[in-house]
Design goal:
Arc Repressor Mutant, subunit A, elongated, alpha+beta, 108 residues, 68% helix, three-stranded antiparallel β-sheet
């Protein structure tokens, strides 16, 4: 596991904000968008959308590319998938621990 994948903190911090969560969902639905097109769909300003997209970009959840004068954003599902796999692994480990504890309690 790379160090970027070992620390899901930036992903959790990025997703904790409802506006960023909505931006991510909008981009997932549309495939791609600019700060201007995204701001038109949200109750926040274009500069606020740019700041939110920066947080998502730094967390590895979106990728930006320049297309002429526009900067277009799209979802990077691999980072979210990697974090989901980490969460699933932790959940499975806790399930095993709880099953072992239950077995011990039932045998006592």
């Amino acid at each position: 596991m790379t160090s970027a994948l070992a620390d899901p903190g930036p992903v959790f911090a990025a997703l904790a904000d409802p506006t960023r969560w909505r931006l991510l969902g909008t981009l997932a639905d549309q495939g791609e968008g600019t700060a201007t097109t995204l701001a038109a769909q949200l109750p926040v300003s274009r500069p606020a959308v740019i700041k939110h997209l920066g947080v998502l970009d730094r967390a590895g959840l979106v990728r930006r590319r320049r297309a002429g004068r526009e900067v277009r954003y799209r979802v990077e599902p691999e980072r979210l998938d990697a974090t989901a796999r980490q969460i699933a692994a932790v959940a499975a480990a806790w399930d095993r621990r709880l099953a072992a504890l239950k077995a011990l309690a039932e045998d006592a």
